[in-house]
Amino acid sequence: MRTPLESLQRMFAESLEGEQRPVLSQLQCTGRGVDYAEGRADSSGCAAEQTPGVSGDGNGAANELADNLRRRIDLYRSSIRANQRTALASAYPVLLALVGEDYFDALSVVYAEAHPSQSGDLNRFGAALPAFIETYEQAPRFRYFADLACLEWSLHLAYFAADANALTQVEWAAIRPEELLEAKLAVHPACALIASPYAIAEIWAAHQPGGSFPANPESPTHALVVRPQWRPQILVQCPAAHAAFDALQRGATLNDALDSAFAIDAEFNFTSQWRAWIAASAITGLQPF
User: Fold this and answer.
1) What does the alpha-carbon distance between residue 178 and residue 188 come to, in Å, rounded to a whole number?
2) pTM for this structure?
3) Counting CB atoms within 10 angstroms of each CB, which of 178, 249, 262, 264 has the fewest?
């Protein structure tokens, strides 16, 4: 008689997330139950063999099984943690560079405990880290970590976002101005807006080749994550442009979006901003009526 595979799988899975290992004692008892069924132990098997001084062939086999499983669980747990840490480091390379290896290792462990993976795709594992680090890191000088993490996660998502065919310059020029103003515009799936009271775009850029840390980290940022081709980029905007693009993302017409922008800045240079959006493929075309 053998222990059912389903029972082993269930106990094994339940043991992975916590430091406690109830599966070991369960398997010891299960193993003794197997021995009993095969006539190698008496009816007091599990209870008796947990008592000091009681020994037997079944006890030794069960202990060997438990020790072997303990080693496998520890190995598997270590592998899971390493993979989760690697996934976070891939999504948050600038945060890793800022805090260092030791801090990031500790952060990845406590984050995994608070937010166990809900998907087989580890590319989704770090979704809750920006909100988590906001409560995890309380030091005033690191208060921009959460917003920086939000920017990095938006870049990470942009990399995996769907492709979109954008109108060419000639096709845009063929649209009548009055039609364009009354239209709802299609936004590229990779686009994301991030506003922060900190210079997160400059801090991110400082960790790219040739970058330098901003003189004033507490400079407000209005950033738009774009992906003109295959590589995500950051387009820094003024508050008026940020408001206009936010309106477009929410389904407003271009005319209404411009109203939002000019309400913030009467001198807003829409022509220049429009060219930047088109060049970055942030706007891909007109939504169907």
Assistant:
1) 23
2) 0.77
3) 178
